[in-house]
Design goal:
Largest sheet: 5 strands, parallel
CATH superfamily: Sugar-phosphate isomerase, RpiB/LacA/LacB
Number of domains: 1
Helix content: 40-55%
Structural class: alpha/beta
CATH architecture: 3-Layer(aba) Sandwich
Order of helices and strands: EHEHEHEHEHHH
Strand order of the largest sheet: 2-1-3-5-4
Number of helices: 7
CATH class: Alpha Beta
Distance between the termini: 22 Å
CATH topology: Ribose 5-phosphate Isomerase B, Chain: A
Shape: globular
Length: about 160
């Protein structure tokens, strides 16, 4: 599985820790930056990761900013992206199991490093449950198709 990573200046250190953690586990990682504490605009990095998914150069994405909120909001503007701002392992599990989230957004100013890595592991290990949840995800995809006919590429579903 290939994971696209992106962060702003508040999240770059945690992003780097996540990258190392994922690589140690054998994941392919596509790091979209940023790589310093110099102030940058989080929507730029959310868009890079979202486009990696839409263009199928990555399977899932992880975004990190101060709170995770701006990254999730920005990524969700891209048709086909289901970004979840998560601060617990339970939320990570539910975002995958019930919502088939393809982007995880984390808050570097909210989470301790160990907690963030556990959230990442839970999120990546949890499969989409399908069943009654599929109908709801399909409804989200229908909204995306209204925005963009290219949305199918990110979701893998019509």
């Amino acid at each position: 599985m290939k994971i696209a990573l992106g962060a702003d200046h508040a999240g770059y250190e945690l992003k780097d820790k996540i990258r190392e953690h994922l690589q140690q586990q054998g994941f392919q990682v596509q790091d979209e930056g940023t790589n310093s504490a110099e102030s940058v605009d989080y929507p730029d990095y959310a868009l890079r990761v979202a486009h990696d998914l839409v263009q199928q150069s990555a399977d899932r994405g992880i975004l990190v900013c101060g709170s995770g909120i701006g990254m999730a909001m920005s990524a969700n503007k891209v048709a086909g992206i289901r970004a979840a701002n998560v601060s617990s392992r339970y939320e990570a599990q539910m975002s995958r199991e019930h919502n088939d989230a393809n982007v995880l957004a984390l808050g570097a100013r909210i989470l301790k490093e160990d907690d963030a890595l556990q959230i990442v592991d839970t999120w990546l290990a949890t499969a989409f449950a399908g069943g009654r949840h599929q109908r709801r995800v399909d409804k989200m995809a229908a909204i995306d198709r209204e925005k963009s006919p290219d949305a199918e590429r990110a979701t893998g579903r019509p």
